[in-house]
Design goal:
Blueprint: H1 2-16, E1 29-33, E2 66-69, E3 72-75, H2 80-93, E4 97-102, H3 116-123, E5 131-137, H4 144-159, E6 166-167, E7 171-177, H5 179-184, H6 189-205, E8 212-216, H7 220-230, E9 234-236, E10 249-250, H8 252-268, E11 276-278, E12 297-298, H9 303-319, E13 328-332, E14 335-336, E15 341-342, H10 352-361
Parallel strand pairs: 1-4, 1-13, 4-5, 5-7, 7-8, 8-9, 10-12, 11-13
Antiparallel strand pairs: 2-3, 6-7, 14-15
Length: 364
């Protein structure tokens, strides 16, 4: 499916010489991380994340597309019906883009299922109502050979989608989670830098603009090192919380403070920053089998708290132009339901989070 799409996009570009959307934007560009392994199929041989939310205490996290029948929870985010509704909700919230995780399909058996929602989005007639970008994982690429043979052509083709999110005057936005694992695919920092530059060169040759690549890290100095040594454009994060706090509940205000502290720590490095904005963190559902470690969790925000936090991130970007040339913001998350961060409408919240987000991003 994606291969056919890629071929079509490349042919279109060769014939027309047209690039993807390159419009500049003065306002903050706000996106949300997607975690799309909510795919339960009959006789599906792979572990999915739905069982983490089967116990009654977590029913309030069930998304609008969930079905609970005699304690059996099934979710199908990978349908056109669900995709169309998610796009409509994202538009209502005023989001500019989703950051889809992309996994090399041959990385392991079943890896391609993480891409199913991306495939559905790319085929949806309403996809231009919200842009998208790609979040790579250093451990989800496979090898240096796969990077050159498969990943670069795939990414360049996706960059040419009209709805691919660009920043800084037309540069395709890319996130790299686990940059240390990406480094591990190559023999040295210099070779990892060259690999990123080869992606940039291929994109420029295809008329897409130079990709703007942000490394997602846990600590600001770590991110500064990747910018210096491997040529990333900015520091960001997948999520951020107190990594030393006790295994107990904390108020959401503590999570807000942790996020803001990270923004400021990144700023002091002098590097470019894409602020992370957590709408939550509570990974207790995933602790039952040891998948997630113990540590702090945070009360879910009131909608006033959430609006204040999101507005603070928008203001931070506006007030610090010297380190926010992309003007981008990333929210954790659209649908990290088992880890406790979501905007997608759920059994417990309905559309409250969508509406609150829209009040910040779509003011009257």
């Amino acid at each position: 499916m994606l291969q056919k799409l890629i071929s079509g996009i490349l042919l279109f570009t060769l014939l027309s010489g047209m690039a993807g959307s390159c419009l500049a934007q003065d306002n903050a560009i706000v996106g949300a991380i997607r975690w799309d392994d909510w795919v339960d199929k009959d006789d599906y041989p792979y572990k999915t994340w739905s069982p983490y939310l089967e116990p009654e205490p977590w029913h309030y996290r069930h998304p609008f597309f969930a079905k609970l029948d005699i304690c059996k929870l099934t979710m199908r985010c990978d349908t056109q019906e669900a995709t169309s509704q998610e796009i409509a909700y994202a538009k209502q919230a005023g989001l500019d883009y989703w950051a889809y995780g992309y996994y090399y399909p041959g990385q392991w058996e079943g890896a391609d299922r993480y891409n199913y929602c991306l495939y559905q989005y790319l085929e949806n007639e309403n996809k231009n109502d919200i842009n998208f970008c790609i979040r790579l994982g250093g451990g989800n690429i496979g090898s240096s050979g796969i990077w050159y043979d498969s990943m670069i052509p795939t990414l360049v083709a996706l960059f040419q989608e009209p709805s691919y999110q660009t920043v800084a005057d037309g540069r395709p936005l890319v996130y790299m989670f686990s940059p240390e694992e990406f480094t591990g695919l190559f023999a040295s920092d210099s070779q990892a830098r060259q690999a990123l530059n080869d992606l940039r060169s291929a994109a420029v040759a295809a008329g897409c603009g130079t990709p703007y690549i942000a490394c997602m890290v846990w600590h600001a100095p770590e991110g500064a090192g990747y910018v210096n040594n491997q040529g990333y454009d900015a520091i960001s994060a997948y999520t951020h919380l107190s990594w030393t706090a006790s295994d107990q509940e904390y108020p959401y205000s503590e999570l807000m403070a942790e996020n803001a502290g990270f923004w400021n720590e990144c700023q002091t490095t002098g590097k470019q920053v894409i602020p992370i904005v957590n709408i939550g963190w509570d990974n207790r559902p995933q602790r039952v089998d040891g998948y997630s470690p113990p540590g702090p969790w945070y009360m879910q925000p009131t909608m006033t708290e959430w609006k204040n936090h999101l507005q603070a991130a928008v203001d931070w970007v506006d007030n610090n132009p010297e380190v926010t040339d992309s003007k981008a913001i990333i929210i954790y998350a659209w649908n990290e339901l088992a880890e406790g961060g979501w905007l997608v409408p759920t059994r417990g919240d309905g559309t409250a989070r969508i509406e609150a987000t829209g009040e910040v991003l779509l003011p009257e």
